[in-house]
Amino acid sequence: MEAGPLPALRNSERSMPSSRLGSKSVATSPRDRVCGGVSASMERMTPQDTDEFAGAGHLPRIPAHLLAELTRVDSWRAVRDLSLDATVIVLAAWFAEAVGNPLAYLLAVILIGVRLHALAVLMHDATHYRLFGNRRWNEYTGEVLAWLFLFTLHGYRKNHFAHHRHLNTDDDPDWARKKDDPYFALPQDGKGVAVRLLKGICGVRFFTEARNIARAKHLQHAPRSLKIRRGLFYGAVLASAAYWQLWPLLLKYWIVSVMTTLAFILYVRSLAEHHGGAMIWDGDMLRGSRHLDATWWEKFLLAPHNVHYHVDHHLYPSVPHYNLPRLHALLLAQPEYVARAHITDGYCTGLRRECVRPAL
């Protein structure tokens, strides 16, 4: 890591998992002890495996005692969030099958895609070791969640940490993959944006992104043992679907939802976080990410689990999603954050204004 100010406290001061601090243990709430303590045998991660921004420049700082509170992991909160998201998915499919009409099916596909995205956000928390205080629970749960989206937590973490370290540079694999992608060449006129969004909801974007992901070396990196476990997981899913004749349900409610609703949401969210309109990278992290003041329905459809606090997440990736609103309130009290952070008035107002070129 380069010398100089960091987006959070230095590693010796941060409350992070043992794998990232060596002798320090993850900050957890008292209830986490019910789910088990942190394993003492966690391996030390190398410097290139950190999620800290490697760039220079002065960034807002939060006092150590406040950061220690904000980085605490509540494992029971993870159990609750996972259970609620999974329950909504099951109930949506059950309702559509019980009612048996096209409108009910359409609503189910939308709702399932929305909650699959919510599960993906929880997988993202696991990537930063923020889902469960217990390292094994965090890794096992995160891997299973990642398998739902056809990649591994191990590979996603390598890709995502590189994105955090080298934000919006050629060493950022997300930026390198998208900088020449016509889907992110915005602003465009209203028709051009509408076509891109339509391709997202109709599944065209899914195939484009699937091809890009297949070529992404970071995302595909995984040890052989993990590839075997993932293969066994998919084998068990396919065998179960064949034995209990679940193929129609698997296709209708998982595959279709992933290809349409989820692909659309991920496109809009990716665009919102680092691309389009006034998003110009000049080396300043606060201007290189976008915070969206989302409405309640935008949070439900596009930004579950506080994922719209994206500037704050890049500043302090050690803060779990449920503490991001408190972090944001602390940052808003700092004039330099207010002056420099890229804050947008929601998805349908601010983001649309930045990405749709006014008609001449």
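Next protein, fold it too.
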Amino acid sequence: MERRRLGMVGRILDSVDLRKFAGARFFGRAFGIGDAAVAAVTSSDRGFFLPAQRRSNRLAQRASFAIGAFMADQLIDDRGEVRFGTFAEPVLDVNHRDFALLSPHDRPRGALARHFGFNQFQFLGGLSPTLLFGCAIADIKYVATAFVYFYEPASRRLVEHSFRAPLGLGCRFDQRPEDGSATLRSGSNHFAMTATRTPQQRHLWVKLADGVEIDALFDEQSPRIEPMWICTPAGATGWVFARKTAGAAVTGSATWNGRRIDLGEIGIFGHNDWSAGYMRRETFWNWACLAGRLADGRVVGMNLSCGVNETSYTESCFWIDGKLHTTGTVAFDYDRRELMKPWSVRGKGVDLSFTPEGRHTEKVNALIVATNFQQLFGRYTGKLTTTTGEAVTIENLYGYMERHYAKW
């Protein structure tokens, strides 16, 4: 019965005219997207139920990995088990289709559950006293989203843009964190994030219909930033993989509010978060990040979290001139009714206060999926202590602070 349902859904989604698919219109309306916007994105080849030739190619590719031929740079081994821990070497392929996904009662999950249960997102942001920006692409299968915003501290001006694509139509997201890409197109609005391993760089390209543009290069090579690679259990049978860096020098340009800004000239530093996995159906986390130049000229970047990626291991860490320093788990203290009041983050090697200046918000409640995403930006003050015992003073450095609930 499940195979028959899967085949029927596949035939619908692989049809030539996806605009006739009522499910796409339903999800579009649930997320406040009109039928015309759905039609604009459904002309792309989503391919989450692949046409026959593409299915054949993928099966042939997977068949080439015979039993015992597991590659060390893959996340899932040849028994269908995921590798947990923090890694000293990069994971090149998050080969989630090879994972033996089970129900909480140890039964194999079907194709639909495997497809809709796997989520991915990537965030690239830039921080400086002159300009802050944040940009994300997320694919949670029922819907794909993208946002970009700019904040100018001197004027306190905030410009935001958000887009949603029902069933992820118009979104492509591969599973190669070191040299892959993520794209989303919604009408005349385009987002693209690409990565190269040699040199170790990220590229962000945004072009919106109203003239907003970003063409930014995140240099993780000079000096080389040691990424945080981590995979942790999630719920009874899932897992989350993440690759994170902060403190990368950003060059290129951004056009917004009728002005073109040279990112290299303003001394902006970036953060990257590449995350994917079979995440908890309902997820909540706090997250903190900063990047900038210290008084002594060194560059600092930071990534702290609570509520995700801390099962047996923790992603919380910071970087000084690209060198990774891990911390223990951290606690976030804030007024959940008044998020714009000051926050604090404390733990082993961490003692920081955060004063918000603005925030970007995404809220959706569409029955099977929901989000309450609050990404604040402002200034950090306090101390970080390295693994060698050095106390690093943080004075009014810009960063992000996040409170996020998701049902996906």
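About the second fold: The longest helix spans residues 2-13.
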